[in-house]
Amino acid sequence: QVQLVESGGGLVQAGGSLRLSCAASGRTFGNYAMGWFRQAPGKEREFVAAISWSGGARYYADSVKGRFTISRDNTKNTMYLQMNSLKSEDTAVYYCARRSSPIASMARGLYDYDYWGQGTQVAVSS
How far is the C-alpha of 82 from the C-alpha of 91, rounded, in Å? Predict the structure, then answer.
């Protein structure tokens, strides 16, 4: 059983920064692409960013490109999301997720991921 635990959320002013972490259990973290998603109140969960199993490739939603950076440390079984220049519209619960198949390419669809964390709240005040 894989467990994903997000941390690092909080309240920040517009223009500020936060760094989210996603700690994964198990020995196979480095075999899977990972992703970050978010869900704002009253809205559907949406793709934010994805990273390949090796960390060599990254993919972002247009809404966060240039402001957010996804990274991972396979020696620590941890993925990160550095969020800079935060805007009020970034307010949401942020989730990390594991790609459903090992060594599979990055993906942006919810159904391409099989394990999800419990989420961490990010609130940006304007």
Answer: 15
